[in-house]
Amino acid sequence: MGEPIVVGVTDAPAAQRAVEWAVKRASAHRLPLKLIEVVGGAVGAVGEDEVLDAAVAAARERVEATASALPRLGLKVYMRVERGNPVAVLTEASARASLLVIGSDHTGGAAHRRGAHGLRIAAGAHCPVVVVPDVDVSDRSGVVVGVDGSPVSEKAVAFAAAEADRLGEPLIAVAVWTPLEVPRNMGAYPVQYLENMEKLTAEALRLSLAGLASRYPDLEIVRRVERGYPSHVINELAASARLAVVGSHGRGALARFLLGSISQEVLARLATVTAVVR
């Protein structure tokens, strides 16, 4: 049996959606599930221990109730409740996980931006992270993946293709090209430049998807080459999709806690269940 899927549990509605999403994936891949709730916010104030003890007890009851309500179907479930910093605890737990799933109170729309915790967890995790908004996506269709030809993009494509095949959904692979800013004294873009940018992007997309048809013969693959800004295009497509997948280009000990601008912008305007792959 492989490493577990770790789920962050809270009393928010989106946390239940996160658990439900993780259960389906764990059952499909025959992986164990680990439910973790972290009681944070301690500052060392006098009398705080009594409050913390009560909060930990309530969290333990919540995790146990969540676990007992799961449709087991052979699913192995672990539980963990502790005090601490939620970002630090979930990041540490991700080092021994195949996937980390967290809920978000985001309900769609550009005006509702994400808080720092979810972004920090997604940036610092050692494994792919799935962020589940408080939105019903059951009537949506398709798995959207952003493609840019980089090594991390290849991992995102592999993750997205496997999920699209599991869900029986089309894979919508989108490569976005953004022209250089035209100097004011230059005028319009040369037609040849625009045509070549589009052709190069289409070729990079073709190479990134090579081999998927043989690996997933029943998978419908939709190729999209778009002009614009990547996060805007991805979120527009994600608004009607069941899942979006993006890569994170963080590198090194410090960079691991920083998302690339595209993945951060996609999470900041969370349009659907979104996986960040590194």
Automatic annotation (TrEMBL):
Family classification: Belongs to the universal stress protein A family.
Q: Which organism is it from?
A: Microbacterium ureisolvens
Q: Where is the UspA domain?
A: 3-133, 143-278
- Which Gene3D superfamilies does this entry report, sorted A to Z? HUPs
Q: Which Pfam families match?
A: Usp
User: What is the designated name of this protein?
Assistant: Universal stress protein
